[in-house]
Specification:
The protein is of the alpha/beta class. The protein has one domain: Rossmann fold, CATH 3.40.50. The chain contains six helices and ten strands, in the order ααββαβββαβββαβαβ. Helix 1 packs antiparallel against helix 2. The N terminus is likely disordered.
Length: 186
Amino acid sequence: MGLLRDTATRRPWRRLALLLIGGGLLGAAAPVSEYQLKAVFLFNFAQFVEWPPAALPGDSAPFVIGVLGKDPFGADLDDIVRGETVNRHPLSVVRYQDVAEVRDCQILFIAASELPQLEGILAALRGRSILTVTDADSPAVRGVMIALIRQEKRIRLRIDLQATKASNLTISSKLLRPAEIVGSGS
């Protein structure tokens, strides 16, 4: 099992390296976009977060990365997860227009278009083990578990430990080390 997880953990970083090298080799014609990088982050979160067994999909069901609201990724997120698995579950991307549509989802990216409804979205997800992620840098994102913040041409992580603990999720120290921690434990 350790070998399976180690191989699965290295593969996403290899994809990121290929994206960066490919973008560098092709020069300005094909730079790596901010949302290509954020798509890789979403994919990698599946490797560095532990869900309670009841929150994981059944035998052949996919591990779902959802996007709620106006999708900023386009095909990039689909391209990143195509053919990949998490603990033998195929990865799948599902787009939602309303939080009421969110059913069997493990990671949910909440688009900036949904910030005015954020309080209601988080209330609807309360008690469910769904990793919530956004890229909005605003005080209004309190309660979202991971914020992907752009600072000086880099993507930084802001992790709300209180929100992750409330949803029974455990985040690897490998993800916590480079992050800004908010909530309990800060």
